[in-house]
Specification:
This protein is α/β, with parallel strands linked by helices and 316 residues long. The protein has helices spanning 7-16, 32-42, 70-86, 91-104, 112-130, 141-152, 167-171, 196-209, 220-225, 236-241, 251-259, 270-274, 277-284, 302-311, and strands at residues 2-3, 21-27, 53-59, 89-90, 137-138, 182-188, 212-217, 299-300. The strands form 2 sheets. Strands 1-3-2-6-7-8 form a 6-stranded mixed β-sheet, sandwiched between helices. It has a two-stranded antiparallel sheet with strand order 4-5. Helix 5 (112-130) packs across helix 6 and helix 13 (277-284) packs across helix 14.
């Protein structure tokens, strides 16, 4: 997991924004939620979010791409935070930092074959030259990083990039301050992939660690639907079941497309919705907002998160 910022921006966060409380947004989905909260961040002043709050998305590192199980994602963010706090960095985390550096520098762009080839090369260096598996802890992250870089320097076109590799250690870490900042875990209920026992485990772990747990049942599209006042006319039983209406589309998405014909999970006018966020908060209160009951009932508690970010304290 990593902060969605370039290396230069991370340097700025460390030096000039120390007084701001950071809300780290961890999404189950990789696009729909990200587009929405990027718009929330851009319109913070307009929707009255406290200016002393900073929103920081947490995105998947290379080895985590494609993950969707909430328990798995939660355990990885916990692992990463514990690594950062203790300084006991796994080789997998170290390799992900290197991949992120290359991505930020534009070396790999969106070339999936090149990414896979680079990742496999990094694994080979660890296993064959350093004699370690990815789950092992690096006793000297900076030194091990230098060894890996040394092997990669055989590639002429990488030569100029390597001058900044020391930044990987300094800016690769999440700048989370326990007891001050807040991790916000944002997921769909999705009973098909998120079992009741997993839900209870994630809820317990979030409470134990002081994380915010924000759920929309059945899925994030319902939170988007709440921005429309006629949402109360939707068939609640069908909404909760959220059956497939086509091979690739479920009931909630079809209802959303009735209101936003151009809607796609990875492309929609999120700003237009966010500008109507007060309606979403108001409409959410007509459904379930209790985090325990959301395991079974249709609703969401994302509106409570927005209200908290406005006031700087949780809703009672």
């Amino acid at each position: 997991m990593r902060e969605k910022k370039s290396f230069a921006e991370r340097a700025k966060v460390l030096t000039s924004d120390e007084g701001k409380k950071k809300y780290y947004l961890v999404y189950e989905g990789e696009r729909t939620e990200s587009l929405y909260f990027d718009a929330v961040n851009e319109l913070k002043e307009e929707i009255r979010i406290n200016p002393l709050i900073e929103l920081i998305p947490i995105v998947r590192s290379y080895s985590e791409e494609g993950w969707s199980n909430p328990r798995k994602i939660l355990e990885r963010i916990v692992q990463n935070i514990e690594e950062f706090q203790s300084g006991n960095i796994s080789y997998e985390t170290l390799l992900n930092w290197i991949m992120e550096y290359f991505q930020d520098q534009g070396y790999m762009a969106n070339n999936r074959p090149l990414k896979k080839s680079m990742w496999n090369t990094l694994i080979w260096i660890c296993q064959e030259q350093l004699g370690v598996t990815l789950d092992k802890i690096s006793g000297d992250p900076e030194g091990d990083c230098a060894k890996i870089v040394s092997s990669l320097k055989k590639e002429t076109e990488l030569e100029n990039l390597m001058k900044d590799m020391t930044k990987i250690i300094k800016y690769g870490k999440i700048t989370f301050v326990e007891g001050f900042d807040k991790i916000c875990f944002i997921v769909d209920r999705d009973k098909e992939s998120f079992t009741a026992s997993q839900y209870e485990y994630v809820l317990e772990q979030c409470r134990k660690r002081g994380f915010g747990f924000y759920v929309t049942n059945p899925c994030f599209e319902f939170w988007l639907l709440l921005h429309f006042n006629d949402v109360v006319e939707i068939n609640k039983e069908k909404l909760l079941e959220n059956p497939k209406v086509t091979a690739k589309q479920r009931y909630s998405e079809r209802e959303l497309r009735k209101r936003i014909p151009a809607y796609r999970k990875s492309k929609y006018d999120a700003k237009l919705l966010v500008k109507n966020i007060d309606s979403a908060i108001h409409n959410e209160a007509k459904f379930c907002e209790d985090i325990v009951q959301l395991k079974e009932d249709a609703g969401s508690n994302i509106g409570l998160l927005i209200c908290e970010m406005r006031t700087g304290s949780p809703e009672k």
